[in-house]
């Protein structure tokens, strides 16, 4: 090979050669992992950059809200009027007496010293730090500006002076303290509002406390003590005005990000005042924001997962490069390898005339080609090979890359007999599998190309491929299985119509990966349909030792009876029950029986239920899952030809032709008796020796 990692600087160093081989194999596996990891990352990467804009345009709540939640004023001022308590403010102040030039303000701290009050919520941090409360600028449209009527005074300053006069005459009036709170809210002085509200709470009756509580909550909310404000409004809910309190609480919870509570409060407010536009708009804006944040959080988790996977990929890639450097350290430089390759090709051309790996000879009438070794033959087109139908190798095994060779016909024919005498004994594969063949065909390849074109014009469709049943008798259980399958005549005539129920059998999960695979199969819709397996039915009938022809229902009743006996190994009975349900076409029951047979079987025999479960999946067209189970079975036992045959069929259905041929070749290499191999032999050999008929010379695994 040109640029081979096995072409070393020091070719005599055996230890380095062995290490290179290990490193090459390791790098191949690592490269597969890196490619699979990169594909996984690219397929699962979240590339949605316009999530927020699309959400705002398409979500029904966003459309109804018209504007995002962030553009709404969640500090919208609210208050409860004194008139709602049947109180006229002008009855508590003197509106007719003249006012002096130097107007006073209603400073509640100077009117009454209140060190502590149990009603004033002084345990809240916002109330404790009232001196430092922030005062964001009030918008001109804040409703509080319209409350204190001009009939109380010509200006807000005059109204404040008249409130001051009223407090000086009556320092325990909760009405005047609330009016003072309104005054200071208009003046945007949060400290004074809190002080006046505390005194109003101190002197208010229980049913009138909500006025001061809503005033206090508005100030705390605007000062970013929204959690304290929520506590205060909840206290106000115990007294009166549900609409104002719930609407205020909805704004507070929306600011806190408690969207579920916010929507609930807006709903209560709309029950009290249906159709209130501000509550409707805010409710939909909150729902819009809530769903957007959920989508953004999911996207963030996805991106974080992708980032972690990229870090791991980069780590593995760096490790791959380091191993590649180790490989290149001992490898011959490429220029030197190319030079050696040219020398090698020149020598081969001298020895084999046209640069062939071996000299192959045309047989009589140019219908057969004889090659000494079972190895690839270099392709060369020419009219001389158009009629070649047989290719004979010195050994039984063959190659799928076999093609014709351009040779000097006369030179080859002249010493044909001498070469055959010195070559390995030619044996046809048909003799290995006890297929009768006459002496003339002992030295040619079977079957002929014309036979393959007639019998298999194309690769069989997946549904045309056979399914198999791996019998426990292959592993020495004949004496145990025969009594199980021997149905007494009284059972045949009078058996209960009870099918074998494997779900009642207690087992222990001993293979997590198989358990997860079976769990995934439960959700596969294809397995929900009833698909009787005729091949399984024929096997089931043939395994019954009693010669009396009985129905499947009778067989099921007998297997149910056998399952209840204690003397038989239970996993063998479950294996037969799985075959029964395969024949009936109930995949769910069949999977249950075979899974429990796997769990109860000794480890060295667990491949038997695995192979039978895989053939059930092949019958349902789940070839990729079946191939995984078959590989697990081969890891347990690789001496069963049926396992390799089943794997070859699964690979054929997945269009993995090279993998299928390799599996079939393993099946043929085994010396175990295999009647199913004989029935499939013709198709296998056609695929192996005439790949150009099926366009398989460059097949790629699509799975």
Q: Which oligomeric form is depicted?
A: single chain
Helix content: 55-70%
Q: Which residue ranges are poorly predicted, with pLDDT under 50 across at least 5 consecutive positions?
A: 378-382, 395-444, 697-703
Total strands: the figure is: 3
Give the biggest sheet: 3 strands, mixed
Distance from first to last alpha carbon: 29 Å
The pLDDT mean sits at: 80
GO biological process, one term: actin filament polymerization
TPR repeats: 243-276, 641-674
GO cellular component, one term: cytoplasm
Protein name: TTC17 protein
Describe what you observe in this structure.
It is a single chain. Strands 1-2-3 form a 3-stranded mixed sheet. Mean pLDDT is 80; it is low at 378-382, 395-444 and 697-703. Helices cover 56% and strands 1% of the residues. The chain is built from 31 helices and 3 strands. It has 703 residues and is mainly α. It has helices at residues 14-44, 51-58, 60-65, 108-111, 125-128, 156-169, 174-187, 190-203, 209-222, 226-236, 242-256, 259-272, 277-330, 334-352, 409-414, 416-422, 429-432, 449-455, 478-485, 489-494, 512-521, 534-543, 552-564, 570-584, 587-600, 607-619, 623-636, 641-653, 657-669, 675-689, 691-694; strands at residues 360-362, 368-371, 390-392. Among the domains are: 70-240, no CATH class; 472-614, no CATH class. This is TTC17 protein.
Task: Supply database-style keywords.
three-stranded mixed beta sheet, mainly alpha, single chain, 56% helix, 703 residues, disordered C terminus
Task: Describe the SSE topology.
Layout: H1 14-44, H2 51-58, H3 60-65, H4 108-111, H5 125-128, H6 156-169, H7 174-187, H8 190-203, H9 209-222, H10 226-236, H11 242-256, H12 259-272, H13 277-330, H14 334-352, E1 360-362, E2 368-371, E3 390-392, H15 409-414, H16 416-422, H17 429-432, H18 449-455, H19 478-485, H20 489-494, H21 512-521, H22 534-543, H23 552-564, H24 570-584, H25 587-600, H26 607-619, H27 623-636, H28 641-653, H29 657-669, H30 675-689, H31 691-694
Parallel strand pairs: 2-3
Antiparallel strand pairs: 1-2
């Amino acid at each position: 090979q040109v640029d081979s990692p096995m072409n070393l600087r020091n070719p005599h160093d055996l230890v380095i050669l062995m290490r290179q081989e290990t490193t090459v194999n390791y790098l191949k596996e690592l490269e597969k992992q890196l490619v699979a990891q990169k594909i996984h990352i690219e397929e699962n990467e979240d590339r949605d950059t316009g999530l927020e804009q699309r959400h705002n345009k398409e979500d029904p709540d966003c459309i109804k809200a018209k504007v995002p939640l962030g553009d709404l004023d969640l500090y919208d001022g609210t208050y409860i009027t004194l008139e709602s308590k049947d109180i006229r403010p002008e009855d508590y102040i003197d509106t007719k007496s003249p006012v002096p030039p130097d107007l006073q303000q209603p400073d509640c701290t100077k009117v009454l010293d209140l060190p502590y009050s149990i009603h004033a919520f002084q345990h809240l941090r916002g109330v404790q730090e009232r001196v430092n409360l922030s005062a964001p600028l009030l918008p001109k449209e804040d409703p509080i500006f319209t409350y204190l009527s001009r009939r109380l005074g010509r200006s807000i300053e005059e109204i404040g002076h008249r409130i001051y006069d009223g407090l000086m005459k009556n320092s325990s009036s909760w009405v005047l303290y609330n009016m003072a709170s309104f005054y200071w809210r208009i003046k945007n002085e949060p400290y004074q509002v809190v002080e006046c509200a505390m005194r109003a709470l101190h002197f208010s009756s229980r049913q009138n406390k909500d006025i001061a509580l809503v005033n206090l909550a508005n100030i705390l909310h605007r000062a970013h003590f929204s959690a304290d404000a929520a506590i205060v409004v909840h206290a106000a809910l115990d007294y009166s005005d549900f609409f104002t309190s719930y609407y205020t609480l909805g704004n507070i919870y929306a600011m806190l990000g408690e969207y579920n509570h916010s929507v609930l409060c807006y709903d209560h407010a709309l029950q009290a005042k249906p159709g209130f536009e501000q509550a409707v708009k805010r409710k939909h804006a909150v729902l819009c924001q809530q769903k957007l944040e959920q989508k953004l959080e999911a996207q963030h988790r996805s991106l974080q997962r992708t980032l972690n996977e990229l870090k791991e990929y980069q780590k593995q890639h760096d490790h791959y490069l380091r191993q590649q450097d180790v490989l290149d350290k001992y490898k011959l430089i490429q220029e030197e390898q190319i030079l050696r390759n040219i020398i090698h090709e020149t020598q081969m051309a001298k020895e084999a005339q046209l640069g062939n790996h071996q000299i192959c000879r045309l047989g009589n009438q140019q219908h057969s080609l004889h090659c000494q070794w079972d190895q690839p033959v270099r392709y060369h087109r020419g009219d001389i090979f158009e009629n070649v139908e047989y290719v004979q190798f010195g050994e039984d095994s063959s190659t799928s890359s076999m093609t014709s060779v351009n040779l000097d016909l006369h030179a080859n024919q002249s010493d044909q007999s001498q070469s055959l005498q010195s070559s390995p004994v030619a044996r046809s594969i048909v003799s290995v599998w006890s297929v009768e063949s006459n002496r003339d065909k002992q030295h040619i390849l079977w079957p002929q190309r014309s036979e393959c074109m007639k019998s298999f014009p194309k690769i069989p469709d997946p549904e045309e491929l056979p399914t198999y049943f791996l019998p426990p008798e292959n592993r020495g259980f004949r004496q145990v299985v025969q009594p199980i399958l021997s149905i007494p005549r009284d059972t045949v005539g009078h058996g209960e119509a009870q099918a074998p129920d494997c779900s009642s059998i207690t087992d222990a999960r001993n293979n997590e990966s198989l358990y997860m695979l079976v769990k995934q199969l439960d959700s596969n819709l294809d397995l929900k349909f009833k698909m009787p397996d005729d091949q399984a039915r024929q096997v089931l009938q043939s395994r019954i030792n009693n010669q009396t022809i009985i129905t499947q229902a009778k067989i099921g009743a007998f297997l149910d009876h056998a399952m209840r006996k204690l003397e038989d190994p239970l996993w063998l009975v479950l294996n037969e029950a799985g075959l029964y349900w395969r024949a009936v076409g109930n995949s769910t029951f069949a999977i249950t029986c075979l899974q429990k047979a796997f769990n109860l079987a000794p480890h060295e025999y667990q491949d038997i239920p695995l192979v039978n479960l895989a053939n059930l999946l092949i019958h349902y067209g789940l070839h990729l899952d079946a191939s995984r189970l078959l590989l697990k079975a081969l890891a347990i036992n690789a001496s069963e030809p049926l396992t390799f045959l089943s794997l070859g069929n699964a690979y054929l259905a997945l269009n993995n032709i090279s993998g299928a041929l390799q599996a079939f070749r393993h099946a043929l290499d085994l010396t175990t008796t295999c009647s199913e191999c004989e029935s499939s032999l013709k198709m296998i050999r056609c695929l192996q020796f005439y790949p150009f008929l099926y366009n398989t010379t460059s097949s790629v695994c699509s799975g």
